[in-house]
Amino acid sequence: MPLSRFHPVTAQWFSNRLGPPTSAQSRGWESIRSGQHTLIAAPTGSGKTLAAFLSALDDLLQEGLAGPLPDETRVVYVSPLKALSADIHRNLAEPRREISALAEAKGLPPVRITAAVRTGDTPSSERAAMLRTPPHILVTTPESLYLLLTAERSREMLRTVRAVIVDEIHAVIGSRRGAHLALSLERLQHITPHPLQRIGLSATQKPIDEVARFLVGTRHVDADGLANCAIVDEGHRRVLDLAIEIPGAPLEAVMSGETWQELYDRLAALVREHSTTLIFTNTRRLAERVTRHLGERVGADVVAAHHGSLAKEVRRDAEERLKAGKLKALVATASLELGIDIGSVDLVCQLGSTRRISTFVQRVGRSGHSIRGTPKGRLFPLSRDDLIECTALVRAVKSGELDRIVMHPKPLDVLAQHIVAETAGEDWSVDELFHLAQGAYTYRDLERREYDDVIAMLSSG
Question: What does DSSP assign to residue 248?
Answer without folding.
Answer: S
